[in-house]
Amino acid sequence: MRILVIEDEKRLADSLKALLEAKGFSVETAYDGETGAEYAELCIYDLLILDVMMPKLNGYDLARRVRARRCSVPILMLTARSDVLDRIEGLNAGADYYLAKPFDTRELLACVNALLRRQGQQVDALTFGNTTLDIAEGALSCGVEHIRLSAREFDVMRFLMQAGSHNLSKEVLLSRVWGYDSNAVENHVEVYVGFLRKKLASIGSNIRIVAIRKLGYHLETSDSPDP
Asked: What are the φ/ψ torsions at residue 219 (nearest 5 degrees)?
């Protein structure tokens, strides 16, 4: 499970990262609202934890931007603003839960687990065009055709399907699939995209993995108009 923490108080953000990673989650951090929104809009995370009062973009506007992109990722807001009207604004902006600071870490973890359980029940498969990616089996299917993916192929395909028509850069795919400390280079992404294109074609999928110079990859269907 991947969690994005967006919090301008660096010490708190790093503490949350350490706490959640100790529980087995994969966690990334952003320290201002604008950067956080850029990450969140990739729609590749299982949960967003965000502060309200942040430089460049506040949490309310960030949540609205994410929801405007039709990204259904659960959002947990953390803020010192605990007034009822603030809570209402947060929920109306798209938050799923509003936790006031200071908070007990046990309550935070309970909220995280509850939101992820709710999300997990909904996302057993990802679908784009006429093709479905089965999360449990790690396989692509189109009608009666079915093909298994390698672990790397599955990760690349999952992120592409979560992002859909939004571009994912090669750098983002490298960091998400191979990890920040990997020696992998951009050519690795190109190779695995090539593998996926062949497998999609083999099952009669109408998905196209489209490469945009300097922007990365996104998905289209064969009946989509050319950009």
From this structure: -100, 145
| Digit-coded pLDDT (tens) for 127-177 | 899 999 987 788 999 999 999 999 889 989 988 988 888 888 888 888 778
- Please say whether the beta carbons of 20 and 3 come within 8 A: yes
CA dihedral 22, 160, 5, 16 (to 10 degrees): 0
One-letter amino acid at 14 equals D
Q: What is the pLDDT of residue 226?
A: 47
Judged by DSSP in three states, 94 sits in coil
Chain centroid, CA 79 distance in Å:
22
**What's the full length of the chain, in residues?**
227
pTM tops 0.85, yes or no = no
- Distance from the Cα of residue 201 to its chain's centroid: 26
Asked if 89 and 62 touch (Cβ cutoff 8 Å), the reply is no
